[in-house]
Amino acid sequence: MTVTPFRFVHATCLSLDEPLAGLGMGLQGEERHLAEDATLIAWERILDISIDAQAELLLLTGNTFLSTSGSLRARVALERGFRRLDDAGIRVCIVPGPGDPAAVWERDFQLPPNVDLLEDESAETVLIERNGQTLASVRVIASARSDEAGWSAQGPAAFDAVRAPWHIGLVPAGTPIEWQQQQPVALDRPDVSRAAATLVKTAMEAGCNYLALGEGVRSTYAYRGGIAHDPGPVQSLGQHLTGPCGVSIVDVLPTGEVRIAPSTVAPVRWETMVVDVDADTTSDELAERMALTLLEREPDSDDEMWIVLWKLRGQNAALNDLSEPRRLRELWKRIEAEMEGDQTLRRVHRLIREPRWDQLQMASEETLGRGFVDMLEADGAALLDTVRQELLSQDWNSPAHRRLLIHLMEETPSAEVLAEARAAGLMWLA
Fold first, then answer.
1. What torsion, rounded to 10 degrees, do the Cα atoms 407, 413, 418, 424 define?
2. DSSP-based three-state secondary structure for 23
3. What percent of the chain has pLDDT over 90?
């Protein structure tokens, strides 16, 4: 079957009107405005990109908003945006994630005719058309609700035969799978069904050309006859995710292959900068070195503000002085003075203080700090699994809260959790 070229935009984890974490109350003026409106600004940019690129379709693959926040601004921004896309003749396909369950979409939103809400794999397939010609089909492949209840003895039904030249499958945020060696596998947890992984494999084998993943971790996996892709979150909400964030513009070529182009939409970007300092470094030299480190990293054209997280390593009198807020403010001013010729974006500086790892590693086995390090290295993974199981066994206010908790645990790598635990613990024990 001949493929007519077309274009669509894939976005996930918009988290509309959610605050940026870890900034405290110190921001004022335009910096505060950007931090408060970052996700909403990103949404407006997604609309602009979709219209300017003459996309046929916008895919939203989960956690477009977080229902627990109950944000009116998010709802209004979405409804206005959908109407704007409707005026431009652009279709929207939404598959909910754990943060934005279908029941909330159906209860709180007035969706125009160009928007299709596909709750799970039981939803009807959507056909994307241009001038009466079918370009592609869109359907949910698997979700957090996938189970084996409706399967025959032979397993799940094959990917439905739909008369379309090209097929898009949705695998939203919260779907309990991970990718290993370019293949989906069920999460290794006793409370997780293997149904979702089986359904995704079935779709891959049955001719699904593009699997739209929604976990919010930028990644691409090629398989025979298609590709699975996650554009990553639209806007990072905290220092755990640095670098540019945005959406993917996907061009479907006449051959049926795809060309994926990332497009940054996040106005606020987090960056971690590491500077090693020797004993003889003066305050002026430190500021100059930090400014040079900043200049080595190029901003994206859509970046309006960077949250710069500084890790200063070494033993130096100038570093010791930074425990005083006044000294720290002076350092930030010196850095900005060094950067006077580069006023392309706003910068907010933060200092990350780390314990003296070398001293802790050399400490006696009898110290609390050393014992803590040894415990995490030996049993950290097992302890983390125990904590996760205890959290899941608690009596949560609603199923939605529990699903959100599961999503957050699945989204956060174990190594990141252990690193944070180590740093937090040693700040007290060092």
1. -70
2. coil
3. 53
Which of 73, 94, 97, 72 is closest to 85 using CA atoms? 94
C-alpha span between 360 and 366 (Å, rounded): 11
Assign domain 6-264 to a CATH class: alpha beta
DSSP state of 26: -
Residue 71 Cα distances to 34, 65, 111, angstroms: 17, 8, 17
* pLDDT of amino acid 363: 54
Nearest by Cα to 98 from 386, 396, 382, 390: 396
Q: From 169, 145, 272, 185, select the one nearest 230 (Cα to Cα).
A: 169
Question: For position 263, what pLDDT does the model report?
Answer: 96
> What is the secondary structure of 5-17 as a DSSP string?
PEEEEEEB---TT
Q: How confident is the model at residue 189 (pLDDT cuts 50, 70, 90)?
A: confident
Q: Where are the alpha helices (DSSP H) in 24-159?
A: 29-52, 72-87, 102-108
Q: Which residues contact 5 (CB under 8 A, 6 or more apart)?
A: 251, 252, 253, 254
Residue 115's SS3 state is strand
- What are the boundaries of each domain within the chain? 6-264, 268-353, 358-429
Q: Report pTM.
A: 0.81
DSSP state of 148: S
d(C-alpha 161, C-alpha 207), whole Å: 10
